[in-house]
Amino acid sequence: MPKPLGTDARKREQLSSQDRFAWPLARVGILGGGQLARMMTKKAKKLGCWVSVLDPDASAPAGQVAAEQVVGSFDDIEALRTLAARCDVVTFDTEHVDASLLLKLEAEGHRFFPSPSLLALVQDKLEQKQVFLAHGLPTSRFAALPADTPAGLRAFGFPLVQKARRGGYDGRGVVVIRGEEQLSRALKGATYAEELVDIEKELAVIVARSVSGEVRSFPLVEMVFDPRSHQLDTLLAPAAVPYEVFDAAQALAKKTVEAFGAVGVVGVEMFLTKTGQLLLNEIAPRPHNSGHYTLEACVTCQFEQHFRAILDLPLGRTDQLQPAAMINLVGESGPRGSAEVVGLRAALAVPGASVHIYGKSESWPMRKMGHVTVLAPTLDEASARVAAVRKVLRIYGGD
Amino acid sequence: MPKPLGTDARKREQLSSQDRFAWPLARVGILGGGQLARMMTKKAKKLGCWVSVLDPDASAPAGQVAAEQVVGSFDDIEALRTLAARCDVVTFDTEHVDASLLLKLEAEGHRFFPSPSLLALVQDKLEQKQVFLAHGLPTSRFAALPADTPAGLRAFGFPLVQKARRGGYDGRGVVVIRGEEQLSRALKGATYAEELVDIEKELAVIVARSVSGEVRSFPLVEMVFDPRSHQLDTLLAPAAVPYEVFDAAQALAKKTVEAFGAVGVVGVEMFLTKTGQLLLNEIAPRPHNSGHYTLEACVTCQFEQHFRAILDLPLGRTDQLQPAAMINLVGESGPRGSAEVVGLRAALAVPGASVHIYGKSESWPMRKMGHVTVLAPTLDEASARVAAVRKVLRIYGGD
Q1: CB atoms within 10 A of CB B64
Q2: Is B45 in contact with A65 (Cβ distance < 8 A)?
Q3: Residue A15 reports pLDDT greater than 90
Q4: N or C end of chain A: smaller count of CB under 10 Å?
Q5: CB–CB of B19 and A46 under 8 A?
Q6: Per-residue pLDDT for A239 more than 60?
Q7: Is ipTM > 0.85 here?
């Protein structure tokens, strides 16, 4: 443990209020050691922070670049307490953690951003929708459903989208039910129904809000999803929409983050309907897959912005310098095994391609292994070039 | 040690020739664990490499982000051999290493880029000048000097610049002798004399050359030096010079790197004289302080480009997206001690400012502790903003 960690918290706060920081600037903990935490860690260190991550996998992507890793489960209060005790502030790679444990640790005096109560709220997508409604933020019509009966679905009216209140992501926990004949698809457990919206585009805005309430948004982006896997297929930044939509979406995203009182970076997902309406879909209070392009394309990236926000430093400029397109690199179908990257040479030959490999030694089908951002003078060109990368670059699980 | 390190070298090479890479893409060693190695390590990992660094300081900046650090001296052949044996290729944070040891290890089959023979050559600035001359590359008139006698200096003619053949950097090992009355300043040991050139601007170009000979240059930049410390004061990118000079300087830099047969990234420093001539000053076969701005400002940064070059991957686009100005953050004069950063909040409030802290726990006068790059729509604006950062941001050695 580096020596300055000994400096007591009170003295650090006092110094900070005078714009003086003993190195390290702050001791930051990250709950979860995946790729988001890996990219977060690099930027936290750039700003002069010391970083510890908690993850059950001893070779977690973020553990490879952090000062240390606490190897342990997110459900283990002792592991969480160990991390929190070693850090000035703890933040998150994932929002799928037991918020009750965090609330307990918060009560013991440990600091978390975003707050455990916000995490608890957003973990329940139905509650998210209720907050949207309470603040007059536009979102599709929805209703809670009594568990395991078709009555509520019928009452809501077909066609509809049924969603699990908790735990769904990348298309899991979501079904479309177009009529009586599809009721067999219905999800079990705690769910809710949403109107099936006629979607023109799926959009996202990354917004940062600092401890003292400064708010900045990144450009509006378009997310194109793979219809089969429901994972992000291609991200286009900025979104090709009329400027009124662009501005309205950014304003809506900022208003949303302020409504939730979030601290840190928040991914705000929304739909643009065929009729030109913007409707909030959901929010994720952490750096977001739709913001990876900011690493290459923007003056400040989402990962650095997150730490500026939670450490209450001035937020950075978010101007985008060139159009960008991004794809995720997921493990190909086939066996699980040691990762093998095929076509890296060909991919790097595509002008403006920036390849990120996450340091995961094993690949399995659909596992997020890396991503590629391509910058180009026009969005069409960026999109064409990232498609060229997709054609040649593959990650397999080998022997 | 991660499991894939077991994969034997022959199999890795065979796979690579088919554009297939087992993770990690390559096991890279870096000799020296300072800030250059730290920024190199982050980018090597982004490309999917595993990184080990050798440095005598157990808390070296690069060791904090690498997979492992070999703690040892650059002069210790056993430490060097340990590093080399664990890696597919070894590269450098510094060129001040005993090349004879590297030549011995190269003969044992270990791989180094740049090559030990190139390092040996550039360590002797007189030999560098002789290579410039042999290849018809423009440089100021110079002559070797017999050690410790004023006769050679007189014969060369005043005014002149006397330089140590080895070990000089940041202004050390350089004196200007304007006439007989300044002979007492003369350096001892192996030195040479150079014509005192009437300098309009000091310029630099970062050039990358890959194993298979692909060459790309970054934009021409201007280096403004502190007249007292002789360290880089402000870097301006791109250099504000007529386009003919811009193009000629890039062509000269490429020709120079090809003349030396360097592999990797090379910093090529040159003078623009008052009469409009470009004269080579010296080269450094590694990522260079004058290329830090590429992290924020260019499509590919010098650190990633270095690994693309030494791993024989296609080089990246080097286009600059926005004008940039950069300053180094060096320890203030005063006591040596635990680093304290003053004015970080104020610095981050400057639009477009990106602050890099190198993770050095101790500060002392003139120690390189970090750097700041500012992007702005115009070079004048970038320059004004970086000057605003300099006014507020300081690093002291405290208790």
Answers
A1: 22
A2: yes
A3: no
A4: C
A5: no
A6: yes
A7: yes
